[in-house]
Amino acid sequence: MNQSTALYLSALRQVEWQDPTDFNFPTAAAKNWLLEQGSLSRLLESHCHSLSVDLLHNRIVKAEKLNAQEIGLLADEQCLLRKVVLKGDGQAWVLGRTLIPETSMQGQHFDLAEQGEIPLGLTVFSASNVKRDALQVATIKLDGRTLLARRSRLWMNHKPMLVAELFLPTAPIYAKEKSCNDRG
Ligand SMILES: C=C(O[C@@H]1C=C(C(=O)O)C=C[C@H]1O)C(=O)O
Q1: 163 Cβ contact partners less than 8 Å away, ≥ 6 residues apart
Q2: Would the CB of 40 count as within 6 Å of ligand 1?
Q3: Is 165 in the pocket of ligand 1 (CB under 6 A)?
Q4: Rounded CA gap, 77 and 99, in Å?
Q5: What is the ipTM score, two decimals?
Q6: Rounded distance, CA 92 to CA 170, Å?
Q7: What band does 69 get if pLDDT is binned at 50, 70 and 90?
């Protein structure tokens, strides 16, 4: 893992999550990205020719490694911790950090521990019963930039996982919006 990825992951762990109703979205487009209820992977796919995943970490963490918010949103049990970088046409767009309780992995049609370099959302949102709740948003100030992040709980066949996503500097969420007076 390179230094900037480690820095981003550390920042994502320390962020102060906010309720979307209290958040000042920088643009309408950013609001749409942050509040996306469907698969973020699918939304990213629609902005590139090829979406790929670099798997950085995929190991079980003990319950004592979870913070109080994570325990409150999930359960006080050991979880699979999955960290990835989602890339659009080779550009690093999103850092994903997902906690999947062991009980959430049981009884699924897919072994989520073996997800590998397939975007998690493509599998989760293929399930018959999926919903997203507890969505929170945040800004992260790093290297003189303000980056956007979100965290939400996904329920796959009534079993929860917690997904945190940091939008990296080249992500399409930051694309300059054509204002009405933009020429061309
Ligand atoms: C949860 C989703 O999966 C995406 C893919 C991830 C992965 O492959 O680990 C992690 C976070 C998400 O950005 C989604 O597409 O909404």
Answers
A1: 96, 97, 98, 120, 151, 152, 153, 154
A2: yes
A3: yes
A4: 11
A5: 0.97
A6: 7
A7: very high
